Amino acid sequence: MEEYLPPHFRSLEDALFSLFGNGVKMEHKQRISGGDINEAYSLALTDGRCIFMKANTIENASFFSAEAAGLTAIAKTGAINVPCVLCRGADKEHGSFLLLEFIAGRAPVSDYWETFALQLSQMHKADTSVFVKEGNYGFISDNYIGSGIQKNTAYEKWTSFFRDCRLEPQFRRAADYFDSAERKKITWLLDHLNDILVEPEHPSLLHGDLWQGNVIAGPDGRAWLIDPAVYVGNAEADIAMTELFGGFSHRFYDAYKDTGLLLPGYSSRKNLYNLYHLLNHLNIFGRAYLSSVRKIVREYVP
Ligand code: ADP
Questions:
Q1: Which domains does the chain have, with CATH numbers?
Q2: Of 17, 227, 234, 243, which residue is most buried, by most CB within 10 angstroms?
Q3: pTM for this one?
Q4: Which protein residues are within 6 Å of ligand 1, measured from CB?
């Protein structure tokens, strides 16, 4: 992972000064629960504004350069709302931090799921040429999936990218969980990915970690995306992930189907995409995910 050192401020107040000018100070800082990795806060400012802050150690500053790059990429598509990136920085008190527009949630509008599906499909249809250098799939920089590193080397073919940058590094990290018969099956699976996965009609910018916790009904009552692990890939992988931990309303899936982005046979590939996330959970959180991983490997290997 490349090092992107954030600008160092004497204090958070100095960062606020650089953003909003003289006279705007922090009135109140409140801890927000819900995140797995970072400390999250809402900052109420003296001019009535509220902003969102995530903080972590200086050593983990690259989480925030990756998150800022992902949010900026999604914003560039103009398809769906993400919080505006205000500032990345570091100070003695908080370590490294990321300041974002605060999403003041409200009740979803009546066509929330249909509009979300449409906006997501527009993001998936956006031009991706600015997001990958010298290839079709990948991203301009590596980033993180949870706390795990996510390789985004540019590739011409989706199936090669998914094998070399997604499944293979996770299997390698998890090698000690498998016996030799299982390792043989895994090798077989990686060697036969071309026969199971399909190349999409065009590459798509993906959120990359699209589960319920990373979608908020924002001030307009529409879906806002947070905490992305973006890369350019096959849109099917984003939809598969939405189905992994609980799923969205059936209205979302009905509307997304109408956009024509899911190719025939999607449901037979879905679990293979989600194998990546389950392996990542196995590597980060441990054995609780092993049986789900084994089940999917058995599903695809004769
Ligand atoms: P982590 O990086 O630790 O996973 P999250 O991105 O999940 O943290 O955010 C932690 C909490 O803050 C969650 O409850 C999430 O809904 C909320 N949150 C995230 N981004 C914003 C934002 N821009 N405005 C308001 N709340 C936010």
A1: 2-101 (3.30.200.20), 132-215+227-250+265-300 (3.90.1200.10)
A2: 234
A3: 0.95
A4: 32, 34-38, 40, 52, 54, 83, 100-103, 213, 216, 226-227
